[in-house]
Amino acid sequence: MRLKRNGSYTLHRKSKTKPNGKKTAAEEKKLYLEPEYTKARITDFNFKELVTLPREIDLNEWLASNTTTFFNHINLQYSTISEFCTGETCQTMTVCNTQYYWYDERGKKIKCTAPQYVDFVMTSVQKSVTDEDIFPTKYGKDFPNSFESLVKKICKYLFHVLTHIYWSHFKESVALDLHGHLNALYTHFMLFIREFNLVDPKETVIMDDLTEILCNSTEAQNHIKER
Ligand SMILES: [Zn+2]
């Protein structure tokens, strides 16, 4: 699916961008932490309740169904800014001071640009979630023993993609008026991985400032509603 872009995008582009098109992390104020933007959410739905395992539903089924849904939504969210994510603008998959490398099937470290990294992630996750031996959909077929560790790996990679959108393409998301979707998706995803301890907190610490604002405001809102 290709989403139509409006022509006004270039107006939002900051002249700070270096001639080679590379924006450094230091140049970017964390725009995504501005209250004006963190307030934007397409829904105030109770995400905490939404991620809780419903009684009568098998844990693995729940993890499989949610992981597949998050994969589709994060893939779609990335596709909205993918034309701005090129080998030139994003030469490495770097978030904050952390650089991510892809590891091939033999465990060999591969240096790649951000769009290549995202492509590796999406291709590999797509392969897993459609593999009947890993994400079984047929009645009577069991989940493999490695299922949980695979889900953890997938969530870690999806987290990297989300952080890249915030770190390098938040302005474009705002220009496209899609930051409300991004914030809602991020909040839902973070509460999900937190609920089932799917990603090591050491991995997510680089986004803790945003996570606290988005997830805590959700919890606070729900608290008010409950009263
Ligand atoms: Zn990028």
UniProtKB/TrEMBL annotation:
Residues 1-21 have a biased composition (Basic residues). Zn(2+) binds at C85, C90, H164, H169. InterPro entries: MOB_kinase_act_fam (IPR005301), MOB_kinase_act_sf (IPR036703). It comes from the Eukaryota. It is found in: Cytoplasm; Nucleus. Pfam families: Mob1_phocein. One of its GO terms (cellular component) is nucleus. Signal peptide: none annotated. Gene3D superfamilies: MOB kinase activator. PANTHER family: MPS ONE BINDER KINASE ACTIVATOR-LIKE MOB. Belongs to the MOB1/phocein family. Binds STK38 and STK38L. This is MOB kinase activator 2. It comes from Callorhinchus milii.
